[in-house]
Amino acid sequence: MKITMVKKELADGQPCDKCKQAEDLLKQRGLWERIDEVVWAVEGKPESPGFVLAQEYNIKIAPFFLVEDDEGKMSVYRSTLQFIKKTFSDEPKRFKVESTSETPNWEALEEEFRGRSPQDVIQWALTRFGEDCAIAFSGAEDVVLIDMAAQTGLPFSVFCLDTGRLHPETYEYLEKVRNRYKIKLQIMTPNSEALQTFVQEKGLFSFFEDGHKECCGVRKVEPLRRALSGYRAWISGQRKDQSPTRSELLVIHKDEAFEGVDASPLTKMNPLTDWSSSQVWEYILKNHVPYNPLHQKGFRSIGCEPCTRPTLPGEHERAGRWWWEDATKRECGLHIASDE
Q1: Which residues pair with 235 in a beta bridge?
Q2: Is 332 a catalytic residue?
């Protein structure tokens, strides 16, 4: 078997960021020595060997990989993760999950990981919990977490709350992410009996009159409670600057609102705690991470269709969520302990 990696050289003589990340990932997995040849596509030089190969295989983004088996059959991979998965499926994994049920020392972990990169937090979480750790997926921050988790090569879980009132674009986006990362996406829907009772008694738009808490309780909080009851830890995309209610957000802590497997304490992680919206989008664009097309229509924070609107220039990113209510009340109950 012969493996060729095609990398892009920029005008300043440096490799592109995506190529650097791919090389780092291969080195992290102990696979870099398995690359037999590196061919460069030099920016501005279409005659360079890498550009010639890109034209031959109709590929426009570097890096990509060519794998020729012992019988001369060529396989082409545009994704580094797919290349690793398909080519080295029988290789032993570099990282192993600890799979321990010991209760974490949350205070010590918060002190250790405060200020560390989101990747460090995710690496620790998946090394410790594996598939018993789930990423809650809905928006831009969450897909960044999925992308980072996928880069580790470690097992993890992903769930999504389908309230029944999401935008059509959001449903299409969920499938796009599922297919991009080849993940099993657990879709959590509201309890049908509870939802039917609520709608019959209150109608479809009661939240405009008496607040969104009850509707969110049925459509989001109860399904989340069911989802988390199957895990020992979960990861959210919350950031401190998203809302006044999140200003004291921790990186790692005990979840005071929900319980895990067999009513055990849940470890909750917010790896993007100290990131800004611009950092999230820099990562998305730099790494070609898929995002909800509604973002191109002025939606900066996306929830249910009736409760979400585009934001105006200068408005806070969550100003389009439950805009008829006070900013200090714009939480759906997913991240705040119950006061009942």
Answers
A1: 135, 269
A2: yes
